[in-house]
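Hello,

Our lab assistant flagged a job as stuck in the queue for most of the afternoon. It eventually completed. Since we weren't sure the result was trustworthy after the delay, we are filing this so someone can double-check. Below is the sequence as submitted and the structure that was eventually returned. Let us know if re-running is recommended.
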Amino acid sequence: MTHPTDMPRDPVRAALPVHLQTGLWLAELGLPVLPLREGKLPFGNCSACVKSACGDRPNMKAAGPCQCPAPCHGWAAATIDPNVLTSPAWARAWRQAGAVAYHPGGGSFTVVDLDDADAITWARQNLPATKTVPTPRGEHWIYRGAMQSANKVRPGIDIKSLAAYARWYDPGTGAITALPDDVRALATKAGPAPRPAAHSITVPTPANGGECRHRTPAYLERGIAMAEQRIKEAPEAIHNAVYRMFLAVLSVHGRCGCLTDAHIKRLFTAAQDKGESLRHCETAWTNALTTLGM
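-- returned structure --
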């Protein structure tokens, strides 16, 4: 792989936004790409697709959930079609882009995202060497072959392949090797993500034998209402806002049995009213549970 700066000079392409130039180059290599906003987040859905009005939910396991011309639906918007990438519907996103992402599974690749030094050390001791890309916090190890994506398969390690996106940093070093069974096994050990509605939280016995303080209706109601309001007032970075609110509610009320399915439904409804898909809500909830060790 050459670096985007080593591409043949094309005066027409040189006039395009720099991230679009990189995206077109990656698309020519067979990697489906999409623009990212500052903060590594995809652009929000357009008005026609907000709240999954386009019917994307049943089809999110495959790219291209609807015929929307805009870069909607996160990873599912990734494409190798230069006509789409340079279309007027994508122009604003490329002008505002802070980075480029690609859909690894769409190009038959898997990225092992190593977030810190301990994760890198573990990978070097347990996984076959492959192409390595430095990231601000760690490294991306890229293998040839697609698989299911999974978060938090080990401390500091995520797997990005099908139905996920990874940020593009640079071509990296080393040769890409075949996806090993050891990486596939990591996702199997992680297990399927539990659906929030079916999740049950064990109620521990209060330390002093008294009633759990969170069972005060006003206390719990304030917490849920505050989370709903903050999700409602969230800026464009809705994914982060939803995750933070889910994490905040679970950290206070998640271990004492206060939360009911009705409370969880209120949080999900607030997020979906803001434009978050059900799939993203479930992922945020699962990630919050994992972070808290629940």
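-- support follow-up --
The delay was a queue issue, not a problem with the job. The result is valid. The radius of gyration is 21 Å. The beta strands are 33-37, 41-42, 99-102, 109-114, 131-134, 139-144, 150-154, 157-160, 166-167, 177-178.
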